[in-house]
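Table S2 (continued). Query chain:
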Amino acid sequence: MGVKNENMPNKGAAVEKGLETYTIIPYIPGGILDPATLHKIADVAEKYQVECIKMTSEHKIGFYGIKKENIDDIFHDLGMKPGGHIGKCVRGVKFCTGNTFCKKGYQNTVEMGLRIDETFHRTKTPAKVKISLSGCTRCCAESAVRDIGLIGTPKGWKLLVGGTCGLQVKKGKLLAKDLSDDQAMDYIGKIIDCYNEKGIQKRLGRVIDKIGFDKFSREVLGE
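Corresponding output:
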């Protein structure tokens, strides 16, 4: 009979069905990879006999069927930190290719997404916070159903807050529009600060519902 294990957010590991093996997700900003990193991932997976490697819905790479004693060694050999199952904080930012590669993109989601990720990733929050950027209103990165979502338009960014795609799917509410990169960064920081000040241990959308969107909007926008 296997030993009963539990999730280990300090190691970025989630226990799997059967409670004997773990899933880990290395931190790869924006899910952007080069050939050398792909080779390293394959070599490490082969070395530790990883049962399954799968792309996640958040543009990350999950390692499945990991033995508890191999978790630290895998991260060490990859030269990466944990990027998933890391507890209550801002998670890795998800974004489409935006106008860097997509002919329909209005805004540079890659540059902006990496900037947001570098600034806010792992910032402690009352519950997990997911941020997504989409280069146009087609919303390929599902920005409308994230705690904080940016959607590119010809005039700048639309900023939505309080969305979720979990058990109770909910579209985020429009907080501001026609934002520059700097304005969007400033508002994201204020949203996170306001969320932390409330200290309510629920997802951002539920906190906004509790205090009221108008009140939350005034506090963030300073109106």
